[in-house]
Task: structure prediction
Amino acid sequence: MPTVYIVDDSEVMRARIAESVSDIAGVEIMGQSGDPFEALDCIAKSQPDIVILDIRLPGRSGIDILKDIKKESPAPIIIMITNYPYRQYRQGCMAAGADYFFSKINEFEMIRETLSRIGRDDQNKIQPPEKKERIPIIKSFDGNRNTPSPKLDRRNRS
Result:
């Protein structure tokens, strides 16, 4: 049974996520926290299969926490959530190892759908999504990962 740990500074949001996913067959919420430091400690001790992680947290960035979590082996599946679904956040999270990235504003139901699929697909073996489901790091026209492609970002044209 996949286990889930929720990290969000909003108690209301943590409760909303927990309520949304609590009845998914094959998924168990093992804990939650609004404090990033407490969350890291609890995640290290409990080793959940999946972490739902907010980007903006008091005292520490969710992206920094993501990087710390992904250093562990085996690393859990990470679902990043935010009220600020800007492209640079999405790209930063995916580059840091996030498996999913959802806006709390208009993709909240994707959290439940993703957990339902994970719980349904394989209750005995948790795997991150196939690469085709991940948002790719797009190489520019010259092959350099750090140079934006003019086709993707007109603001960076010379």
The first strand starts at residue 3 and ends at 7. The radius of gyration is 16 Å. Confidence is low (pLDDT under 50) at residues 131-158.
